[in-house]
Amino acid sequence: MDEANARYDICLHARKMWQSGLVVGSAGNVSRRVGEQLIGITPSSVPYESLTEDQIVLVDLASGQPVDASQVPSYELPMHLVIYRSIPYAHAIMHTHSPYVTTLSVLRRPLPPVIDEMVIYFGGTVAVADYAFTGTDLLGTNVVRALGDHNGAILANHGNVCIGRDLAHALLVALTMESTAQAYVQALQAGEPVALPQGSVAAARRMFEERNRR
After folding, report:
1. CATH assignment of 3-212?
2. pLDDT digits over 136-177, tens only?
3. Residue 76 catalytic?
4. Closest CA to 35 of 99, 100, 96, 84
């Protein structure tokens, strides 16, 4: 995609993230690769309901400096840069503050494989990244460690990060994580959730590996 299409793509999926209830106001952030050298990312403190394509910030991946911008890039830009530099197959990133995932983040509780879908979309248990202050390189480093070869991680006391082969994929991962987290939190209120048997986890993991890197 050229830069104009990338801006449209980011704006579209940032609005979908907001409309789906995964964030409020201007919380969270969305980015994607634009060719080999650039990423596009949502701006800082612009509500999604009024976000326009021209406000998407293009950033040089190597230097981390904006190259074409009318706005300041998201405060979480350092985290996005660390992820892209560390995980070549990450082509899109969505960081949300969705309610049930954020509940787990405050508890610092991982999301275990309780339904088949979460292994297929995430790759297995969603780990909790060690706490680091927002907007720091260390937060990105901790996220990369927690992601491993999975598509999602929970940020301690913060929310989550979901990666994908494109923004539609990253959004689907984020939506699936929130719906699974809701079921898990509600199950915890009723009793002790039962994880999937190992055979099912292994089968779902194979599906993840076949589908995830296409």
Report:
1. 3.40.225.10
2. 999 999 999 999 999 999 999 999 999 999 999 999 999 999
3. yes
4. 84
